[in-house]
């Protein structure tokens, strides 16, 4: 049995909360109409990324029971969806977090606060210190992390060992350029994370131009063999990628009769 | 200051010890003439891979002070080389090992026994249980591992944390096929290992056809940004790839003023 997974790549506008939310909800609605039951949205999808300072971020942040999650809950209930969205969240103690929230028809089922912060994010956000949650949803076991977290193989391994069949990753990948003809190494990192752990990895990147920063727009859904089921056109455009994923197959870590991604590990020889 | 690193991709013939050794030495000689100072050869480079049984492997194996390492030592002394070769080794206790040996002009400087065994290798070889050695050579700090080891990110991380600037990996990558237009995920794994740790990774694969098994011939030298400095033509041919590598640059793990591949790790949150 397969489930259709969608990653939504779009261009949030810094500070345009209402417009960003409207475009997000429309994209989720369209993905649901196309058959998606799991939808992944980018990091900081309602606010944009390049805050001038912490005060601007704070003014744009919302709590987990705020309007974005409420609206996504309604959509999820209507279409039987699991939605993963990246948000600037105000946590219960009033700290700002760069979070991924998993929403289903009953509301937010898990909140993950980005653990590995990028660039100037520490000026704005408090880093999380909890492992990636793995949620047993109606459509499969879903793990969450955010952007730079994915570049730490220890972190993906942890989610996979904890049972994730699909790792959903809202990202904002700034574009450092790359050699001609090469797929972005950020996208390859998602592919290899999938292969190394025999999981599905779904990355929703953003596009656009914000205070001089451009993003790769390198969204991808990689299968447990590490090859993309679908990968973005690298043309800077908003686009939704959709792939049928047999998530239960990711429970089987065997490569053959002889080898197994997990059983072949020798953890007593590894140090963290 | 850069050093020229070569990976030699060729087609050992199962059981033809003398011929394989002669072809290896000729290829090392040619690489040295082309300027290489570090030369990486494939896994099980003198014996071939597809042994009928342990007895055949044992008959072909040699000790670390055997003729292959002696001949490579002579070449290394003559051309100021560091050579990494994959061999079926008879260890001092008489066990067979799937090893990588680092040879310089003084002889073998390190022996590594493959820790993560592939396929039917456990019928033939005893798995190692020591971490990848990292050797301070005249040309830079070189880490060693063999083939399937590279698919465990914990293992590459360990070599990198132990100071490897260049990870040399003799491999025999069997070819499982891949989608049209895709670079083999095995090669991507080497690229992402390099990027994740900001090290150079040099993989020498084999080609040819042996008792029905074919190999990818996916040799690559990846730089600390994860992009190939040079990558094999995927045409099944013997070929030597050469790249100038600024190995000392791999000591610097910074991505920018704000981020660093090692300093950004949160090891107390990782479990092995």
Characterise the protein shown here.
With 272 residues, the first copy, chain A, is an alpha/beta fold. Chain A has one domain (3-269): Nitrilase/N-carbamoyl-D-aminoacid amidohydrolase (4-Layer Sandwich), CATH 3.60.110.10. Chain A has 5 helices and 14 strands. Chain A has helices at residues 17-33, 54-60, 67-79, 153-161, 185-197; strands at residues 3-9, 38-40, 82-90, 96-104, 107-113, 134-137, 140-144, 166-170, 200-204, 209-210, 213-214, 220-222, 228-231, 239-245. In chain A, the strands form 3 sheets. Chain A has a 6-stranded mixed sheet with strand order 5-4-3-2-1-14. A 6-stranded mixed sheet of chain A has the order 6-7-8-9-12-13, covered by helices on one side. In chain A, a hairpin with a 2-residue loop joins β6 (134-137) and β7.
Overall number of structural domains of chain A: 1
Based on CA atoms alone, the radius of gyration of chain A comes out at: 17 Å
Query: Overall mean pLDDT score of chain A?
Result: 97
Identify the CATH architecture of chain A.
Answer: 4-Layer Sandwich
Please tally the β strands of chain A and state the result: 14
- Rounded to the nearest angstrom, the distance between the terminal CA atoms of chain A is 37 Å
Helix content of chain A: 10-25%
Q: What structural class results from the helix and strand content of chain A? A: alpha/beta
User: How would you name the oligomeric state of the polypeptide chains in this document?
Assistant: homodimer
Strand content range of chain A: 25-35%
- Figure out the total of helices of chain A: 5
If interface size is counted as residues with C-beta under 8 Å from the partner's C-beta, which chains form the largest one?
Answer: A-B, 42 and 44 residues
- Poorly predicted spans of chain A: none
Order of helices and strands of chain A: EHEHHEEEEEHEHEEEEEE
CATH class of chain A: Alpha Beta
Organism (chains A, B): Nocardioides antri
InterPro entries (chains A, B): Aliph_Amidase/BUP, C-N_Hydrolase, C-N_Hydrolase_sf, UPF0012_CS
Family (chains A, B): Belongs to the carbon-nitrogen hydrolase superfamily. NIT1/NIT2 family.
GO biological process, one term (chains A, B): putrescine biosynthetic process from arginine
């Amino acid at each position: 049995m397969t489930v259709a997974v969608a990653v939504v790549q779009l261009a949030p506008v810094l500070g345009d909360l209402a417009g960003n939310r409207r475009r997000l909800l429309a994209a989720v609605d369209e993905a649901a109409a196309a058959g998606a039951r799991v939808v992944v949205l980018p990091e900081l999808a309602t606010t944009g990324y390049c805050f001038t300072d912490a005060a601007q971020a704070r003014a744009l942040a919302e709590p987990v029971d705020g309007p974005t999650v409420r609206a996504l809950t309604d959509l999820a209930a209507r279409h039987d969806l699991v939605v993963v969205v990246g948000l600037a969240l105000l946590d219960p103690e009033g700290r700002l977090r760069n979070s991924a929230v998993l929403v289903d028809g009953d509301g937010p089922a898990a909140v993950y606060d980005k653990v590995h912060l990028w660039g100037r994010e520490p000026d704005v956000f408090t880093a999380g210190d909890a492992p990636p949650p793995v949620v047993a949803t109606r459509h499969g076991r879903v793990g969450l992390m955010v952007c730079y977290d994915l570049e730490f193989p220890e972190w993906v391994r942890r989610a996979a060992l904890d049972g994730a069949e699909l790792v959903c990753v809202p990202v904002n990948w700034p574009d450092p350029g790359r050699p001609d003809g090469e797929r972005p190494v950020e996208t390859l990192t998602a592919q290899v994370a999938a292969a190394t752990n025999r999981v599905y990895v779904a990355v929703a990147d953003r596009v656009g131009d914000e205070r001089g920063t451009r993003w790769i727009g390198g969204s991808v859904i990689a299968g447990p063999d590490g090859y993309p089921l679908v990968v973005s056109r690298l043309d800077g455009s908003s686009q939704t990628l959709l792939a049928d994923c047999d998530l239960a197959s990711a429970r089987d870590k065997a490569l053959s009769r002889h080898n197994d991604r997990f059983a072949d590990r020798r953890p007593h020889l590894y140090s963290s």
